[in-house]
Design a protein that fits this description.
This protein is an alpha/beta fold and about 525 residues long. The chain is built from 19 helices and 20 strands. It has a domain of about 130 residues: GMP Synthetase, Chain A, domain 3 (2-Layer Sandwich). The N and C termini lie far apart (about 50 Å).
Length: about 525
């Protein structure tokens, strides 16, 4: 799409004086058509070569990584296939990668990948504190091109090119970067902001100055001020923070979002399961619109929705990342099975393991996925390895609690703002139980009946939980109602309001639950 810069009276299309000209705006959508179809056709062909592409990526990673400090320690020069790779490179999480990252932060080269990273993506972990994830010259395209490809696939399939004429907002972290060992460091969304093509910058909101505001609520007010009178056509972000934006728009504009932005046609979202937020978001908009789901992380852009007609997200099999899959029920075994894409099956939960040209090797990203198709390879994100409840041996996962709640909510026409679940272990008389903290948009008329439905749904999903209820080991779950905006106030109280932060669905301890007690209704 860079050819667009050659038009409009011989001046770049991104020149401030020309970008608002209707001819130039129409030209953007016009020139997107051939490029969208080119990328779309390329992705269609790639669906048939996914296994070969993955094998080629593994060989390329080994070739490029064998002379690094990591490669020498793990004898990558002698590795020729996946079985040998799995034997040579153990599974690691960030804590176990820290010594290598520390060397890079000290200014050393050729540690995990050739040279040194061009960025550190700074992200907060639940157990590791701040994490510094390397992004290299070779891996940056994975982050940039995948988001672009998702939009271009949507264009080619739907025929909707008109949104390229309007304004687009990406609710993201600050683009301001610090330097660590002379490596620019910041939030991934802020890093990506620096790579948005110049011809799209005049379509992009909020302004750079507003995007740099650190306080989320101050930033949100400024975003609303800048966008309220604009022709917004695309809105992107993590669902709970998009909902906050919509709430503030409605408060300021006294209209539903679709009335404020008549040409708003696409919502791009990722970071959490969309289903718990969907009903309320669409209600705030005032109509259903088409959505594009993404599966990005600081460690890589793993999958994206390539079609409005097919379930699941297309695995990014030819973008510098080699994927391995560990059956979720084996994840904490001493020697779990490590499957390549050749071996995965539909419907099984897998922990996602990556090796990439960012210099991550056998890296456990913490997410679990489930394939809904192997021709092509499409998956859904089913939860987090560390987000589960097994205080009593039930091993309840995020996918199960979301299903249990959403099924009951749909039957009762109840809208959920946010929720999380934790164990309540009895210290005295009475049995232990699962404690659900829920913020309702509209409260159930009969809370006991609603609770019963959720509990039954969860029992049908998880046989171990059902056994504990049947055996009188556990009481049925109990609901604690969080007051309006209680989760927002909680996130503010722990310094995680806005940006890329999310409320964990499940905890195996009481920390979040106890912190939520002041926010009960």
């Amino acid at each position: 799409m860079a050819i667009e810069a050659n038009y409009c009276a011989g001046k770049p299309i991104f020149a401030a004086s020309l970008n608002d000209h209707p001819f130039c705006m129409n030209l953007k959508s016009l020139l997107a058509r051939p490029f969208a179809h080119y990328i779309y056709n390329k992705i269609q062909k790639g669906k048939h070569t996914a296994l070969e592409d993955q094998d080629a990526i593994l060989k390329s990673l080994i070739k490029n990584g064998k002379d690094t400090e990591f490669g020498k320690q793990h004898h990558l020069a002698s590795v020729t296939n996946h079985a040998e790779f799995a034997a040579a490179v153990p599974i690691r999480d960030y804590e176990q990668f820290k010594p290598f990252i520390q060397k890079i932060k000290e200014g050393k080269h050729n540690i995990l990948w050739k040279g040194k990273p061009i960025y550190f993506a700074k992200t907060s972990g639940t157990t590791s504190g701040i994490k510094y994830i390397p992004i290299t010259k070779d891996s940056i395209d994975n982050h940039i091109d995948t988001a672009r490809n998702a939009l271009l696939c949507y264009m080619a399939e739907s025929g909707n090119y008109d949104f390229a004429k309007g304004k687009m907002i990406f609710l993201s972290g600050s683009p301001e970067l610090e330097r660590i060992a002379d490596i620019p460091t910041g939030r991934l969304s802020g890093i990506v902001n620096h790579h948005i093509p110049k011809y799209l910058r005049t379509n992009q909101l909020p302004s750079y100055e507003t995007n740099c505001i650190e306080d989320w609520e101050t930033k949100l007010d400024k975003i609303v001020e800048e966008t309220l009178k604009q022709d917004m056509t695309l809105i992107s972000g993590i669902p709970p923070w998009m909902q906050m934006y919509f709430d503030r728009l409605i408060e300021k504009g006294n209209k539903k979002v679709a009335e404020l932005f008549p040409n708003f046609s696409i919502m791009v979202q990722g970071g959490v399961n969309f289903d718990p937020y969907k009903a309320k978001l669409f209600e705030s908009i005032g109509k259903k619109i088409e959505c594009i789901e993404l599966f990005p992380a600081s460690e890589g852009f793993f999958a994206f929705q390539d079609s409005q007609k097919a379930e699941g997200l297309l695995l990014n099999t030819n973008s510098g990342i080699y994927f391995e899959f560990i059956p979720a029920n084996e994840m904490f075994n001493e020697s779990p099975a490590r499957l390549s894409l050749h071996d995965v099956k539909i419907g099984e939960n897998y922990a996602l393991i990556i090796s990439s040209n960012a210099g991550l090797w056998g890296y456990n990203i913490g997410d679990t996925v489930k394939f809904v198709s192997t021709d092509p390879y499409r998956l859904v994100v089913s939860g987090r390895i560390k987000h589960f409840i097994s205080a009593f041996g039930e091993h309840v996962i995020g996918e199960e609690v979301e299903h249990a709640l959403l099924k009951a909510a749909e039957e009762e026409n109840i809208k959920i703002t946010e929720f999380t679940v934790a164990p309540n272990i009895s210290q005295n008389a009475g049995k232990s139980f699962h404690e659900w903290f829920i913020e309702f948009e509209n409260r159930p008329a009969d809370m006991n009946a609603f609770t019963e439905k959720i509990d039954n749904n969860l029992r049908m999903k998880n046989v171990y939980y059902d056994d504990l209820i049947r055996g009188n080991i556990l009481e049925k779950l109990q609901i604690r109602q969080i007051r309006k905006n209680g989760f927002i106030d909680y996130m503010k109280s722990v310094g995680k309001l806005g940006g890329q932060n999310k409320v964990p669905r499940l905890s195996n301890d009481r920390k979040i639950a106890d912190d939520l007690l002041p926010f009960l209704s």
